[in-house]
Amino acid sequence: xxxxxxxxxxxxxxxxxxxxxxxxxxxxxxxxxxxxxxxxxxxxxxxxxxxxxxxxxxxxxxxxxxxxxxxxxxxxxxxxxxxxxxxxxxxxxxxxxxxxxxxxxxxxxxxxxxxxxxxxxxxxxxxxxxxxxxxxxxxxxxxxxxxxxxxxxxxxxxxxxxxxxxxxxxxxxxxxxxxxxxxxxxxxxxxxxxxxxxxxxxxxxxxxxxxxxxxxxxxxxxxxxxxxxxxxxxxx
Length: 236
Ligand SMILES: [Zn+2]
Known about the structure:
Blueprint: E1 9-14, H1 19-23, H2 25-34, E2 37-44, H3 58-73, E3 76-82, H4 91-104, E4 108-111, H5 119-134, E5 152-156, E6 168-171, H6 176-184, H7 187-190, H8 201-216, E7 221-226
Parallel strand pairs: 1-2, 1-4, 2-3, 4-5
Antiparallel strand pairs: 5-7, 6-7
Helix pairs in contact: 3-6, 4-5, 6-8
Zinc ion binds next to loops.
């Protein structure tokens, strides 16, 4: 059986500028090659990710890095521009993300697991789920009109796979080089590999893709769980 993303519209909702590369860029690349439209919504601006030698205007630098990575993939980028560590499940942010959904019109959302390590990731996961309902609700007003239906939602693997039981795997063996090139666009974060308190991102990404691949009998994979909530579940 082969998963087919033809004609889908896939939107990854992540907390920080390089999270999509770590957790779902292979799946986005595979969906793109099937002919899907791809979007990446990054809620925080990355201003908390300073390397040992601080970078001035880090949020602006990380915006340029995100742009470059999205361009490589051919994805539309949406930026929430919220300061790192301050992401909250509040009404303005719910409506901000709901409006992004209404503009992009996703058929599939990829969201952070609620078991992930970082508070911004967990809050981003909650917001992604809330907006998957709000976007199709006439009671929630934003600039754009409500969508005719809610998108499907898949929870992404956690960083370093901690506490995440995969529901299924997407084979990304053919897309690792693009995933790595996208990650390499995040130069300010790759520079942190020398920082002993920060895991080298490329190693982390490769190990995780290989480990999930091993579990699924392929060279590299990304793991997900389907969100089986009312109106967000589908039959294939
Ligand atoms: Zn993150």
